[in-house]
Amino acid sequence: MLNVLELFSEADPVWSTADIIESLETSRSTGYRYIKTLHDAGLLTTVRNGYYSLGPRIIEMDLQIRQTDPLLLASHGVLEDLVDKIGHSALLCTAFRDSVLCIGESRAPSSPANRFSRGQRRPFFQGAVSKVILAHLPHHRLKAIYARHSTEIEDAGLGGTWSVFRKTLGEIKKDGYLLTMGEFNPGVYGLAAPIFNEQKTALGSVGVAWDEKARRDVEVQQAVIAVKQAASTISERLLENQQRP
Predict the structure, then answer these.
(1) pLDDT tens across 82-110, in order?
(2) What is the pTM of this model?
(3) Angle in degrees, CA 21, 27, 29, rounded to 5
(4) What confidence tens digit (pLDDT) does each residue in 149-201 have?
(5) What is the chain's alpha carbon radius of gyration, rounded to the nearest angstrom?
(6) Which of 77, 90, 121, 209 to pair with 52, CA 20 to 30 A apart?
(7) Taking the chain, what is the end-to-end CA distance rounded to the nearest angstrom?
(8) Which whole-number Å values give the CA distances from 84 to 46, 77, 88, 220, in the listed order?
């Protein structure tokens, strides 16, 4: 049933009953039951007879998560301060499946085109906000990720073998931050640092981005210090909130 929701995207926002059932490769009776259940729950809404889009309950849930998500709550004011210090946009990201999801943002007027925004996902193996989380995941999870994505990992320049992959991530982990350039948009720099839980596993990352043309306005070492401090502040707030009775 949850696979029905996976069908909807920006490219395909509306689906017919027949197309949903065909995509699920299930019986008509099962397909109709799934659609009805999701519709009754408000997760699907009727666009016209026999056609559906994502429903209003999702909007309600989005408001709820904005008001209650621990990572978002711990980041209040931090991204805005980062923009003030650096003069460029700041992002808050979290790991989601074998990818990274943007969950918060504070925009500067000079934001790069095609900017990464709340609700968008990117691969684990490209970009500073992604790879800095990847580098701080537990060994067993990295093993599983490598088994599933060895080709993508090699294509991303992270290593053609498990040992090289681990060594590459180890270097990122040692630095405590990552600076990249042009991995999604030509001429756009990305800088990120990890956010930790109590076990020192990365829950997410804080990142900033700026265009190459603005490089002369950015003191990179100062930006590194500011981004690492922002990530540290959020990590400390998370720990404090978890320890409260």
Answers:
(1) 999 988 889 999 999 889 999 999 988 76
(2) 0.86
(3) 95
(4) 999 999 999 999 999 999 999 999 999 999 999 888 888 889 999 999 888 88
(5) 20
(6) 121
(7) 37
(8) 44, 11, 8, 15
Rounded CA-CA distance 26/50 in Å is 17
Sorted by sequence, the CB contacts under 8 Å of residue 103 that are 6+ apart come out as: 69, 71, 72, 92, 93, 94, 118, 204
